[in-house]
Amino acid sequence: MKVLCDVSLWAVLSALIAWDLIVAPADPHAGWRLAGSLLLMALAVGVGRRHPPVSLLIVVASTAFEDNFVFAVPVMSYLVGLRMSRARPAAYTFALIAVAGTALTVGVRGAGVTTWFFLTTALLFAGVFPWLVGRHRRQQRALVQAGWERAGLLERQQRAAAERVRMQERARIAQDMHDSLGHDLSLIALKAGGLEVAADLDERHRRAVGELRASVTAATDQLAQIIGVLREDGAPAPTRPAAEGVADLVERARDAGMSVRLRSDGSPAPAPPMVERAVYRVVQEALTNATRHAPRAAVTVLLTRSAEQTVVSVVNGPPPAGPLPGVTSTGSGLVGLRERVRLAGGALSAGPRDGGFEVTARLPHAAGAASAEADEGVRTATPESATRLREARRRVRRSLLVAVAAPVVVAGVLSLVYYPFATFDAVLEPADFDRMRIGQHRTELRGLLPERQVVERPDPADWPLPPGASCEFYTDGNFPLGQAAYRLCFVEGRLLTKDRMSD
């Protein structure tokens, strides 16, 4: 793929040079020039991937004998910015081109300051600007890729944190089951012990009942050991009563000072134990969150039971005095609740309501498939990852602004440096030019003529000199080049002609 791209690039750039040589008037050296141009272009493209600055130097140097190589300069400059991560080699390359070009143009060929200014400006817009655009494009790709990698890392970290919360919730579920099953197994062991000492049992049945009692006791101990492994290090054993229900929980919260009321609708029949534990945990977590984030707010617990499902809803109003300062939420409590409800076959929804907050769980009495909504909070991208991506895009836009503005600013600075030099004491005011009369002696014009002439003179082929005359050139102060705008020709000290070279 890279080879195909390089061949296509060579073909396009070479076509611009070849076409000019083919359609040009007959040139005995056109064939050699064409072959040399194609070879140099192939060399520039070939070394472009390993040594991008070298390819740019080859193209710029080739413009000395073939002008159409100038079309390849912005392309190679762009590729230098796109392919190189460091800016210093490119800066050295442009500095070398500027110094060598100045020495060749001004020192060898004897061109004027205006020509140097034009070539320097061309280097800025045909070389530096495309390089900055290519560098911006490289940064854009790198930043977007890094942003997505960071977003993926943050999402994986969030999933891992959510998974830890889920495991903790499963451990709490196991502890709850231990409280329930341990209680039931203890009752079985107690009943077996009573049968073991009954007087009407023979020895064979008494041994069987004793073995049953020992097995139940051993199972209770094993259950306690397993739950002890699941419990976090240093976590205390549950302190609430195993048989405590939602009503007891609400009563304890009310005794602690919360404004909470419980409403129960529907069937009074108890739900399956797994559902009862999930209902209890939903109410417990919702009351805890209301205490932290909406202190002194009124809380309503609505418990609706039917033969098929239990629906529990906990709604708190807005806090009268606002939330407590410094209280933040990680969302792990809701993740744990979703896992608890999902394992019970239900679905959990939570969100703002009328300035407060509502948590609702629907729990079917028959175990069913977990709702897809259970993982909604885990699948969504983290706000932090989205913020980092926006910041990355903002930095890319800033680099694009630099790419566009830098050449313009530098060109403006060069103009501010060049313009005073080109126009210093060489500006002829239009009113003074109009006051001059043909035939006036130069001494009569002494107060009207500037002290010096412009540096750059027009081509004699465009403005031929009158026979026997000597001509002087002045500017009207046109920015930024300060080019010649007036020509005054004298013969024996008298004004022969005066010409306005630009309107």
TrEMBL record:
Span of the signal peptide: none
Show the catalytic activity.
Answer: ATP + protein L-histidine = ADP + protein N-phospho-L-histidine
**Keywords noted in UniProt:** ATP-binding, Kinase, Membrane, Nucleotide-binding, Phosphoprotein, Transferase, Transmembrane, Transmembrane helix, Two-component regulatory system
Q: Which Gene3D superfamilies match?
A: 1.20.5.1930, Histidine kinase-like ATPase, C-terminal domain
InterPro entries cross-referenced by the UniProt entry: HATPase_C_sf, Sensor_HK_TwoCompSys, Sig_transdc_His_kin_sub3_dim/P
Pfam families the record matches: HisKA_3
Instruction: Look up the EC number in the record and give it.
Output: 2.7.13.3
The residue ranges of the Signal transduction histidine kinase subgroup 3 dimerisation and phosphoacceptor domain are: 169-233
- TM spans (from-to): 7-24, 90-108, 114-133, 400-421
An example of a Gene Ontology cellular component annotation for this protein is:
membrane
Q: What PANTHER family does the annotation carry? A: NITRATE/NITRITE SENSOR PROTEIN NARX-RELATED, NITRATE_NITRITE SENSOR PROTEIN NARQ
- Official protein name in the record: histidine kinase
> Could you tell me which species this protein originates from?
Micromonospora citrea
